[in-house]
Amino acid sequence: MLLHRPDLAACLQSSTIITDSNIVTACFRCQGLLELVRELKSVSQCSFVTIPSVEFEYNRGANSLKTYNENQEFFNNLIDGIDPMMFMKKLDAFPVVMSKLNAGNPSYTDFLLIACLYFYRDSGLVYLMTADLKAFPSFYDREYLVTIEEDKSQQVRNIGLYRFNVDNYAKAAKSIIDAEK
User: 110 and 132 in contact (C-beta within 8 Å)?
Assistant: First the structure.
């Protein structure tokens, strides 16, 4: 089962979608989500990208070389590119703001995904796709929601597509900077 707004493919036309490891796993477990991602790639010309730690998270736990290679092949067919995160030194105050606002989330991978969305905030239609709906601070707007039911477990999951909200970030950063004075 897969539920989403009927015009999702049109809304995401030519978008870059930064992908969390839980989305790769969800695609493996839900044929409907995999088909949606394929549609977004082929019909809407969306590009699915991620970061090295997501690739690691997806592949960890493989109990054999064969399983690892199968997982990596699935990953490579889903993900169009991996951002090496060379921009991290250019983020100035962002890590400080995030350490204050998102202190309850100890995941380094989540921090890096959030940093990608922040860094590419002026690059057009860039979204973060994740099933971790509570891991991100308030200055990320969930613009779209997809609900899936995993094929075997029948577990229902919600997946969000988030964008960076410049105004909300500026307010949050200002409050942190003002508190430091």
Answer: yes
Find residue 161's DSSP bridge partners. 129, 144
Q: Which residues are within 8 A (CB) of 112 and not within 5 positions of it... i.e. 6 or more apart?
A: 51, 53, 85
CA-to-CA distance for 109 and 122, rounded, in angstroms?
22
Consecutive H or E run containing 41: helix 31-42
Local structure of 51: helix, strand or coil: coil
Which tokens go with 120? 């590419």
Where does residue 147 fall: left (phi above 0), alpha (psi -120 to 50 degrees), or beta otherwise? Answer: beta
DSSP output for 52-118: HHHHHHHHTT--SHHHHHHHHHHHHHH--EE---TTGGG-TTHHHHHHHHTTT---HHHHHHHHHHH
* Torsions phi, psi for 173 (to 5 deg): -65, -45
18-71 pLDDT per residue, tens: 999 999 999 999 999 999 999 999 999 999 999 999 999 999 989 999 999 999
Q: Give the whole-angstrom CA distance, residue 133 versus residue 145.
A: 10
Residue 154 main-chain phi, psi, to 5 deg: 60, 20
Average pLDDT, the chain: 90
CA gap 9, 19 in Å, rounded: 16
